[in-house]
Amino acid sequence: SGAGRIGWGQAWRANLRNRLLDAEDSYLVLTNLIFDSTLSTNLIFSNGVNRQLDCIYGTLSAISEMFLQSHSGEIHLLPALPVAFTNGSVSGLCTRGAFQVDLQWQSNKLASANLLSKVGNTCRLRSRWPIDVMLGSNYVDAPMILPGLYQFTTIASSNYTILPARIAETELCAASTSAGDTHTALTNFAFGNLRGTRLNASAATDFVTYTVTNLTAGNYRLRVVADCGANRARFQLSGGPSGGALTNIGAVQDTYSATNLVYLQATNSLSVNLLWTNMLTEFDCGNWTAPSTGNYDFKFTVTDKNAASTGYTLSFDYLKFTPANAAAPPAAPPILSAQRFGSDLVLSWPSTASAFGLEYATELPTTNWNPATPAPALSGPWLVVTNAMNAEKVFYHLRKP
User: Fold this and answer.
1) Residues 5, 2: Cα–Cα separation, whole Å
2) Percent of the chain with pLDDT over 70
3) CA–CA distance from 59 to each of 75, 281, 353, 367 (Å)?
4) How would you class 350 by CB atoms within 10 Å of its CB: exposed for 0-12, middle for 13-18, buried for 19 or more?
5) I need a labelling partner for 256 at 20 to 30 A (CA). Which of 24, 76, 82, 283 fits?
6) Which of 341, 374, 306, 398 is nearest to 119 (CA)?
7) How many Å apart are CA 137 and CA 163, to the nearest integer?
8) Distance between CA atoms of 312 and 399, rounded to whole angstroms?
9) 258-294 burial, b for 16+ CB within 10 Å, e for fewer?
10) Confidence of residue 269 (pLDDT cuts 50, 70, 90)
């Protein structure tokens, strides 16, 4: 509360506002701090009663956490981006979990990101905008495991491209429904476009059909994001050229959920952030092909309802069209194990992965990896390299040429 005049106090308040996803109040505090006459012109310290290095360190932290946060076990993209920062980019931000992130945004929305995985940890990525993940020219399987939270495995020293997903927002699509049912638009700040739709169905065989216009020809992995709840139904998705025959896509999906999530959502309004309740869930409907560019109908038919459900309602956010890979993405290298025996370090990996070579570096991050010596020896089902331990810091990884 309050803006305060002490440098470190203002920096502290800006950081707290960022953690509350309160972008506008954080921006207000930071601008007051930067224009404060006690702040040194070279931004080295604050010339208050005491010369405060912690003011500048705290200010740098507050600025960086507008763009990226990782304290909750997930990497949050643009969590507290002020409206004043309409377009921009930032690079070289490091996160917990050993990732490095570059970000670009336009019109206050994510445009793209590059994520370097330094050691190959699993990445949990939070975005208020639906995203796709690429490794080179291949799309990576990155399912949404919780509302707005995507997870995927990574390979050490690899760069991943994060892009806005190709989606069709249901509230922007022309819709037709079964006779007697109502179809309404919903507002929820957790939804992809802050809005979604709801079919107030009353029985099995009720349906809603959405028309997606100008869909580019291609092979897609089709996913549907629905808001699950205690009165929700099961559905069967079918699709095809607009006005033509429709065929089933994937299996029957159940949108019943006994519980919802309640969490904070930024509104880009000064000091106004809201708690929103939903259980957005991504349903993988499998591969589907659009044979030509044009308009396509996607029909959601109520098949029945979970025994615990109190109704037949369906609520949708968007359809997501991820281009299907022509080839499988590269496989992750096998696990490299390390054990200490006396003064020796023994490195081993499965002999079935003989195509992988052991490399080392003396600093991270780096692109300068060197072949390790001696050559591996075969010991049962393992390839083994034994090196004497000394004071030198050395990093190892496996790479397939």
Assistant:
1) 9
2) 89
3) 20, 37, 48, 32
4) middle
5) 76
6) 398
7) 12
8) 52
9) eebeeeebbbbeeeebeebebbbbbbbbeebebeeee
10) low
Mean pLDDT of 15-23: 89
Distance CA 75, CA 373 (A): 37
Q: Are 289 and 203 in contact (CB under 8 A)?
A: no
Between the CA atoms of 93, 99, 102 and 104, what dihedral angle is there, to the nearest 10 degrees? -110
Q: Kindly provide the b/e burial profile for residues 200-226, where b requires at least 16 CB atoms within 10 angstroms of the residue's own CB.
A: bbeeeebbbbbbbeebeeeebbbbbbb
pTM as predicted: 0.79
Q: What is the mean pLDDT of residues 336-354?
A: 83
pLDDT for res 50? 64
Residues 127, 129, 131, CA angle at the centre, nearest 5°? Answer: 80
- Is residue 233 packed enough to be buried (19+ CB in 10 Å), middle (13-18) or exposed (0-12)? buried
**In terms of Cα–Cα distance, which of 368, 320, 121 is closest to 222?**
320
**pLDDT recorded at residue 335:** 82
Give the rounded distance of the alpha carbon of 107 from its chain centre.
Answer: 19
pLDDT more than 90, % of the chain: 56
